[in-house]
Amino acid sequence: MAELSFIYWEVILEFLFELYVFYGLTFFTLKRRPRFWLRLLGGAAGVLVLAIGAAAAYRLWGDTVLGRIGVYLVLFAVTIAHMYLCFAQQFSTILFCCSVAYAAQNMCYKLRLMVLDLCRGALDQVRDVPHFLLYYRIVYVIFFAATAALAYFLFIRRTTRHLNNWQMDRQLLALCVFVLVIAVFLCSVEDIYFTLLSTQLEQKFDPVDYLVLKETGNLFSVTCCAIVLQLASRTAEKRELKQEVEYLQYAIRQGRRQYEIAKDTIDLINVKCHDIRYKIAALGAQNGGLREKDMEDLRQSISIYDAKVETGNQLLDVLLTEKSLYCEQNGITFSCMADGEKLDFIDGSDLYCLFGNIVDNALEAVKAISEQERRVINLLVKAQGDLLMIQADNYFDGTLTFRDGLPVTTKADKDYHGFGLRSIRMIVHKYDGTLTTYAERDVFHLNILFGANGKE
Q: Which of 83, 252, 359, 446 is 20 to 30 A from residue 190's alpha carbon, by CA?
């Protein structure tokens, strides 16, 4: 009887061990609450105390479907509360992560059962080997580590990225419920009824048909859990892309408002500079007017008027004039040859965001360069036949790593940077263009190609 009680206790501990391993893989990127380790260790002690009662309940009611489901659901609910105690997230996010971990645990558990059933004959032959249980546990840990790593790299890693920025919706919560139904119901029903068909606790089946049927059920459970994890991964990726698009659209709207402010400012400055230039000329023509040195100082002070960029596109003129003035103030050479009239097919907000990001990315690179002769940005917009080309080149320091055709941001906070080039690509694709970027020695090249009337 004591040996049987120990078996139930071992089953509960094994379940909790596997579940908490997947909790670690799922939750490690999430924001923690204050005094995290105290909460984690204290909560774990509470869960272990409850596990003693769960083992007793498992012994009394674990041979019924409802009893076994009840035991595991109570344990699962307690571990959810434990994770909520440790991590500063909405309850819906905690529930989603716990459900993903439960599905992964169930998938690995069923895979282990399948391997054990297939190797049952070989195990019986070596069962009398000294330290058999030790070797069995070592093999178990190795197998579990391998399946856990497989589940992590195939599903969990993609599912849990950027969870700190999520706002959970009903679709994901419904997915959580589906995970629970698959993981708990199928596992409990299958284990109980096939145990009744087997010889005692050895899981041996006299009719081989029972074994085939059991393995079919195990394979079905593994497939269901894998499908659920894949759905979770796809849903998470879709959610992340949706939030990224929303951010890019917001950035485009902000660019439009910035254009309106910059346009009014530059127009006012140009009018004032134009008036001052004529007044200076009038003063210089008067007898006893300003000295030539003073006149030259005043001319340099209003040289902002000569910095105006004219491309044939009013919006582009405002943007590039603003960037040209910034370059002049910061010792950056900005060379621009742009036929702005050929860009009329692009919406104003998109155009401002497109060129704003192109120049801003180049500015960010050259500002970090100390050599004056390398603080250079070249921008070219020209039509050639039915094609419209946009080319931007700038020097940079360090090395660039490219992923999916775009350089990976070198900033520490990768969640909130790198949107510039992605917004450029989004706008280019919106107008059926192509974007290519590459680095050659210490020069970064960006090329955009549009077909006739903005269509390739």
A: 83
Question: So what's the pLDDT on residue 20?
Answer: 95
Instruction: Name 295's Cβ contacts closer than 8 Å, sequence gap at least 6.
Output: 280, 284, 289
69 is written with which tokens?
Answer: 């489901």
CA 327 to chain centre: 34
How far apart are alpha carbons 400 and 377 in whole angstroms?
A: 18
Neighbours of 212 (CB within 10 A): 11
Which residues are CB-neighbours of 156 under 8 A, at least 6 positions away? Answer: 22, 25, 26, 100, 101, 104, 229
Q: pLDDT per residue over 25-76, tens digit each?
A: 999 888 899 999 999 999 999 998 888 888 888 777 766 777 777 888 888 8
CA 288 → CA 279, 281, 295, 301, distances in Å? 15, 13, 13, 22
Q: By mean pLDDT, which of 77-91, 229-243, 324-338, 427-441 is the weakest?
A: 229-243
Instruction: Report which of 161, 127, 146, 138 is spatially closest to residue 28, judged by C-alpha positions.
Output: 161
The CA distance from 314 to 325, in Å, is 17
Q: Is the CB of residue 419 less than 8 Å from the CB of residue 247?
A: yes
Token couple for 297? 């100082």
Q: Could you tell me the two tokens for 304?
A: 């902002």
CA distance 387 to 369: 34
Q: Going by CATH, does the domain composed of 332-454 fall within 3.90.1150.10?
A: no
Distance between CA atoms of residues 239 and 79, nearest Å: 26
Amino acid at 300: Q
* Cα atoms found within 13 Å of the Cα of residue 419, Cβ hemisphere only: 18
pLDDT of residue 97: 86
**Residue 162 in tokens:** 């950027």
Q: What is the C-alpha to C-alpha distance for residues 343 and 453, in angstroms, rounded to an integer?
A: 9
Domain boundaries, the chain: 2-249, 332-454
The pLDDT of residue 349: 76
Q: In angstroms, rounded to a whole number, what is the distance separating the alpha carbons of residues 302 and 194?
A: 90
Sign of the dihedral defined by the CA atoms of residues 396, 397, 399, 403, in that order: negative
Q: What is the pLDDT of residue 419?
A: 66
Higher local confidence (pLDDT), 246 or 215: 215
Q: What is the mean pLDDT of residues 177-195?
A: 67
How many whole angstroms separate alpha carbon 169 and alpha carbon 182? 21
3-state helix, strand, coil in the chain (%, to 5): 70, 10, 20
Say yes or no to pLDDT of 103 above 70: yes
Q: Give me the amino acid identity at 245.
A: V
Residue 298 burial (CB < 10 Å; 0-12/13-18/19+)?
Answer: middle
